[in-house]
Amino acid sequence: MTKKILIAEDDPDLLRLLVRRCQSLRHEVDSADDAILALCKLEGTLPDLAILDVDMPGGNGLSVCEMMSTHEQMRAIPTIMLTGNSDPDTIRRCHSLGAYYVQKSVDVWSRLEPLLRELLGEGTAPAEEAGEVKEVSETEQAVEAALHSGEGCLYAVQTDPNAESDTIIDAVFAALGVEGGDQAFESEPDSAEPADDRPWVLSVEDDDDIALALKLRLAESGYNMVRATAGVEGYRKAFMTAPSAILLDYELPNGNGDYVLRRLKESPATSDIPVIVLTGRREATIERQMRNLGADEFLTKPFDWRRLRESLERLVDTNAVGA
């Protein structure tokens, strides 16, 4: 069933992209490039869902959301806030208004699409009618053929992290909708899977001090650690060479922890990897969200090392851990 979506965004390129993507889900899309026009269209059309930029001419998306919350009919409209600003106050205001928060990044559509499907119901396009041409790039067609011929492509990527498999993984990410995978991060010189037989842990953490502390503590307990500093990078490393466990921060550049966890659990190559969330966020709603997405443990910073170690011992094959 076709639903109505209003997108309020002052960046014309991003607006055009979001409109096209939403239309590809067979939804009716209206747009606005400032807060005042957005409010007028919200009141006049009462869409099924609103996507609002936080920073817009004529006001901001949070103010529009606040006005919606006081309106008898508009308060029921699910709202997604888009912003490049990840300061705690903005996030708190989104939560207090009952709005969903999505940070602008190279993978913004990959984070928006599952949320749209959840809020509007299944939004996939119906079976193609006769004569209708589906727009799929050559890369996506090649990946579709590889995936439908079996899962070998996925598992080859998982077990053979060399230059040849980089080409395959980039194609897979293109099909998944994660754009700019290579440009999103710089590989660290020591980021390859450790060569010895000790279990290794992938830490997806952008704080240098915390990452160093984790590496030292893990080494003492018989684990190697590989680090990723951004969301897309972390997912890619896990996808290429499955670690024994993943330590996942919540707030990350290029894809927050909830996006990374969702992608990990959606892929058969990574769905069984234990994930421990390490975050400074203490809200019960975030813990509930991450556990519902499949997190095995949720620990807050500053973390209790003893508890983290016990969680790893419980989730990882302890017989493989060196003394």
From TrEMBL:
InterPro entries: Bact_response_regulator, CheY-like_superfamily, Sig_transdc_resp-reg_receiver. It comes from the Bacteria. Pfam families: Response_reg. The modification 4-aspartylphosphate is found at D53, D249. GO terms for biological process: phosphorelay signal transduction system. Signal peptide: none annotated. Residues 4-119, 200-316 form the Response regulatory domain. Keywords: Phosphoprotein. SUPFAM superfamilies: CheY-like (SSF52172). PANTHER family: RESPONSE REGULATORY DOMAIN-CONTAINING PROTEIN, STRESS RESPONSE REGULATOR PROTEIN 1. This is Alkaline phosphatase synthesis transcriptional regulatory protein PhoP. It comes from Pseudobythopirellula maris. The gene is phoP.
